[in-house]
Amino acid sequence: MASPLDDKIEKMVTALKGAVPSVDRVSLRDLREEDIPHLRRYWFDSPPEYLEAMGVDPKKLPPQEKFEIGLLEKCRGPSSKLNALIILFDDHPVGFHTINPLVEDDYGIFHAHIWDSQFRRKGIASISYPKACWIFFRRFGLKRILFKTPTQNTGSIRVKEKLGIRYIGDETVGFGIVKDGTLAKVFELTREESDFLIEQMEHPEVDLNQIQRNLSLSVDERLYEHQKALNLALDLQEAGKKMREQSQ
Ligand SMILES: CC(C)(COP(=O)(O)OP(=O)(O)OC[C@H]1O[C@@H](n2cnc3c(N)ncnc32)[C@H](O)[C@@H]1OP(=O)(O)O)[C@@H](O)C(=O)NCCC(=O)NCCS
Question: What is the distance between the alpha carbons of residues 175 and 81, in angstroms, rounded to a whole number?
Fold first, then answer.
């Protein structure tokens, strides 16, 4: 017999079909002890092929007990040091974001996992990525967030492309539980760009393309753009002056 929770989940999944969730239905909160069984099942009960398809080397996973103790310590430590956030859809936990490796006041590598497959490809990550990055930037004083996505993970690559996160090149990686020698696409997000993503999400009616283009320019290119605009304004002013002189 289906439990009330199963019924609730089925209703949520049905309601999501074909509809893009509104920004406020996807939220984030800090990892709690009650989430640990979800994470344990995700990493230790998923078929090895699932993990390998994501570029994970199952042999690099720590022993289960050590994994759980590590998470417990994180939950009991201060929130200011916690690098794991739970993704909620209508207040129901569906996945997590982590940032690791992490160098405080500098950069971190971002990860995303929706553990309940029923909630994948429903538009949730398109909202949770910007929200989680916003939190991590402030919590750890980061200058940039990197995404190193194995090239075979087309779904995860598509999320970054859809959000317009800057692709900066390919790299062979093997950090953490990622299989050594994995070819990854690297994307980068600055704090300024992260704020832009939030603006874009919360105010989709405003055309922010020009702002995004400006953010992607180097300082020299921005100066050149300003100079061009200034020259144009001066030319127009001069032309107006000449016309007035001729008409007198
Ligand atoms: C990758 C993941 C976090 C994306 O989250 P999501 O909520 O499913 O993503 P969204 O629904 O917001 O999708 C955003 C875009 O990516 C596309 N996309 C998502 N998953 C996809 C997949 N498996 N294959 C192809 N495209 C995919 C969506 O179609 C959408 O693009 P569109 O609007 O042009 O159609 C999620 O699917 C997941 O947890 N996957 C398993 C774990 C994983 O691979 N994590 C990344 C490790 S690097």
Answer: 20
- CATH at 174: 3.40.630.30
pLDDT digits over 22-36, tens only?
899 999 999 999 999
- Identify which of 158, 163, 187 to mutate to test ligand 1's pocket (most ligand atoms within 8 A of the CB): 158
Q: What is the pLDDT of residue 245?
A: 87
Report the helix count and the strand count for the chain, using DSSP H and E: 9, 7
* Residue 212: domain span: 4-216
Within the chain, which residues score under 50 in pLDDT? Answer: none
Residues 177 and 61 sit within 8 Å (Cβ to Cβ): yes
Pocket of ligand 1 (CB under 6 A): 54, 95, 112-114, 120-126, 149, 153-156, 158-159, 162
- Count of domains in the chain? 1
Instruction: Report pTM.
Output: 0.84
